Amino acid sequence: MQIHAISLDLDDTLWPIAPIVQRAEQRLHDWLLTHCPTVAAAYPIALMRELRDRIALENPHLAHDFTAQRKLSLTTALTPHGFGEDTVEAAFEAFYAARNEVDLYADARPALERLAARVPLIGLSNGNADLGRIGLRHLFVDCVTARDFGRAKPAPEIFHEACRRVGVEPPFVLHVGDDPLLDVHGARGAGLPSAWLNRDGRDWSDAPRPDIEFRTLTELADWL
Fold first, then answer.
1. For 6-30, what is the mean pLDDT?
2. What DSSP assignment string belongs to 3-25?
């Protein structure tokens, strides 16, 4: 297998996403308590989460754009209480700043540094993380997000966009990610070889299997 570039999923590949979202939800609620207490009372964390989920279901055209979903849910919550767009943006910033305070997996940064020294890396994510805020942007030549591109994994077009930006044909771009459908099958459908990052030692229950399977990014760096 000849690998000339690597595309990398972000959430649950470089950091666990669940605790980040929980912290961001708490940060948003704390901000609302200070600046919009009536909204905080009407939408405690659990109800704000339900609102966001409902907004996502009612707006399938925003399925690729978590930022738009979050801002629309905040608009829905804030507007009846007399708050306008500036407050929506400030509330979102409170959430988004916490969303980018990630706790990297211990192997992530050292492995990324080793990988980036060998081949170009490009981020490929359905999420809305900001590699610049996180402090990893210098290790990537670019980052393709579903929000900016307009399509989400497993659509082959977003994989092809990553290949275009890195200047390498799909058969020579290894895609690495944790999700069997979005990452492994998505990459295969787009003509990229796939590496399944299986940190939890799950069983692969589908066919065909990923081209390569690793438990850590360190193993991937060793392999490369």
1. 98
2. -SEEEE--BTTTB-SHHHHHHHH
- pLDDT recorded at residue 205: 78
pTM of the model: 0.92
Which of 80, 99, 118 is the C-terminal boundary of a domain? 99
**219 and 108 within one domain:** yes
The CB-side HSE value for 222 (13 A sphere, CA atoms) comes to 9
The range of the structural domain enclosing residue 188 comes to 5-15+104-223
Average pLDDT, the chain: 96
Structural contact between residues 111 and 220, judged by C-beta atoms closer than 8 angstroms: yes
Give the strands of the sheet with 5-8, arranged side by side: 142-145, 121-125, 5-8, 173-177, 194-197, 212-214
Task: Report the candidate in 201, 203, 197, 202 with the shortest Cα–Cα distance to residue 219.
Answer: 197
